[in-house]
Each structure stands twice: as structure tokens, then as C-alpha cells.
User: Fold this.
Amino acid sequence: MAAPAPGAPGTGPQLSDLAPVKLFPVTLPTTEPPAPLPDPGPAPPQGHAAEDGHDVPDIPYDYFWAVDDAMPALDRSFAVSGSGLLGPQERKRKSASHGRWLPPASRDPWTLGSRNWRYSDAEGLNLTLGNEEIEIPAWGRAVRLGGVSLSQSSLVSSDYADSWRYSLSLGALDQTTAEQGDLVYGETAGNLVLRYGLNRDLSIESQTQLAPDLATHGIGGKYQTGWGAWSAGVARATQGLYTGWRYQAAYTVKVLDDVELSWRNERYTPGFVDLSRYGADASNGGTVQTVSAKLPLGRWGDLSGSFQNESVGSGAARRSFGLAQQFWYSPNLRIGLKAQREVVTGDYDIGIRFSVPIY
Assistant:
């Protein structure tokens, strides 16, 4: 066959068919020249109108930040990684006490003491199981009971005006002495104290004590002034064939905002016996004068001193003075110091007590 002549159009493969890039015709788009935007019209409604004329958004209020929303975050610890987010092991932060060696405050309503187990809630209810010093009026005398104590006050949710408080203790008399060292309990007993506050300065108190063959009832009051607090009370006791009365008056004042001074005068007639003198001879009356002072020492506790002069109808007299102090030496060690001296007999007593909490 005869080959086509060079340059003849059209027939057979061409050299341009072997090129890697092929060209095709493209139509270029045309754009309009820029023009200014039109004026914005009224904005569409974003919510509904409230009564005061302001727009209220249609977003649920659960998505808005409130003041109370910050409270849960204050009780949490942030991640150590520094991202600002709560870590996977979140734990509540414990508030530190004012004292250096005091144990940290706990949010647990149950607390374990050296002689008792105590429960306290936010409503002002307190329950104690174990050994505790009973609640007394300002003019009363303290004594320890081993058993159950229940108390509650309205001051948690109300003001001083028309406030009330009650305290009930049931158990056995604690007759343990420092010389023996062993736990010694006596007869079963009960103590009830009711307090009603007319206002911030004036309150009325009553006390009832019961034990085998003993019933004591008392009433009194406390008045707070700018120069201190006055308290007075009268009580009547019946034990077997004996019936007697007790009259008390006390005054407490603070000096230099730190030192607290107290004075108390007590007179009881023959036949009067309460829980603090249970089992004593009721045939004689007597008088008791007590002067005490207390000085706070910060983390070293409170240093207290007292002088007591007691005389009975039979002519016997007793005069004594003493010093006492308790403080936390470390988070797991509490130290108590006590010294007492009898003026008439010359006897003295010096002691130190170490308390170690067990958890």
C-alpha cells in the first residue's frame, strides 16, 4: 500500500495525540461590579416580652449562671494537670481550724471524743453517747454522767428573741476519782434543763434532777449587761425525809477583752442535796464562795485558776486553789495539766494527762 503524503490532513494517528496534556476551550465567568449593601431592617423577635417591657430570651433558665452555682465548685479540687477542669478523682476540701495543731474540721455529723461519741446536725440537734458533763444553768453546779445526752436550740434558725433550748441527760453518776484511776459509776440519774430567752440580754432557766430517793427542782435567770453577766437561782431538794433549799448568785466579767473573771456565792440549808452532792451528809447546811479566772493562750489552750472557800454548819472549813490547762501538742496528742492545793490541811495534787485519739 502506498503511504500517504506528508502533511496530508486527517487520516491516521497524529503526533499531537501523543502529548501528555490536552487543551480544551474554557468559557471564563463574568462577575458583576461591587455594590453597597442595603440598610438593615428591623431584627426578628428573639423572645417574648415580660411585664416590665424587656425581652425575655426563649432559652431555659437552667443554662444561666446563678450565684449559688459557684458554691459546689468551692468544695472541689482542680486537676493538677492545669487544664482548669475537675480531675477524675475529685475530693472535697477540708476547712482548716484556727489552731496550728488542732485536728481538721470534718463534715461527718458523727465525731469521736475521748469519752463519748457525738452527733450534730444543721438543725441544732446534738446527741451524745458516753460520758459527758451535764448541761447546767448559769447558777448550777456541774457533774458528769455516763449515758445518753440530747440537746437542741432554736438559735440555729431564729434570733435571740423568743429563743429556746433544752438539754436532757440520762445515765449513771460518774464517781471516778484521780486517785483510783478506774471507772466508777454510781446510781442512775437524770438531768433536764430548759432555757427561754426573752431577748438578747435576759433569759429564764429551769433545772430538774432525779435520782433514787432524790428530786431537785430549780429556777433562775441570767441578765447580760455592758459590764458583765449576772445570774441567780433558787432550788428545792427532797431526799427521803430531808427537804432543803439552795440560793445562788454569780457574776462574770471580761477584763481587757481576754481575761474572764467569775464570782459565785452559794448558800444551802440543811436537807439540801443535788447530783453534785449526792450521797453526802444532808443534815448540815453551808456556804461556798468561788473566785475564778481564765486566760486564753491561743494554740496552748486556756489557763484557768480558781479559789474556793467552803464552810459547813458543823464548823468544818475547806479552802483550796488550783490551776488547770489543756492544749493540743500535736494532731494526735492532747496534754492536760492540773495542780491543786488545800490551804487548811496542806494537801496538794499535781497531775498531767495525755490523751491520744483512736480512730
